Amino acid sequence: xxxxxxxxxxxxxxxxxxxxxxxYGIDSELLNDPDRIGKLLTGAAAAASLHPLAEPATYxxxxxxxxxxxxxxxxxxxxxxxxxxxYASVDIVSCALAERAVRARDYVLDRLGPERHESDLIxxxxxxxxx
Length: 131
Known about the structure:
Layout: E1 3-5, E2 16-24, H1 28-31, H2 34-47, E3 57-60, E4 66-72, E5 75-82, E6 87-94, H3 98-112, E7 116-124
Helix pairs in contact: 2-3
């Protein structure tokens, strides 16, 4: 079972923390720039004291939009951009303290500057529930 938590519960400990972030009203040129989006993810990892295992892997769609994936020692970051809607979806998954995933989220929000965003913090994997 997943536990959705309010932001003030970011110190709760689970096996994984999953931050789901939807952002609206972002500059379409930024969302279509693979170098800037890749640097965004590596910057978010650094801001959260997380450790990339490789350079970001990027897939650029034929017309517009990107999928960028960054493997980190603690799990991964992924972003999917839709420049035609000014929209981006970000997943930050980490086995480090939840506070670090929240720092990475805040870094992304600060750099992309969406007009509006929605974010959920989900705690996953509770060993006491294992069979």
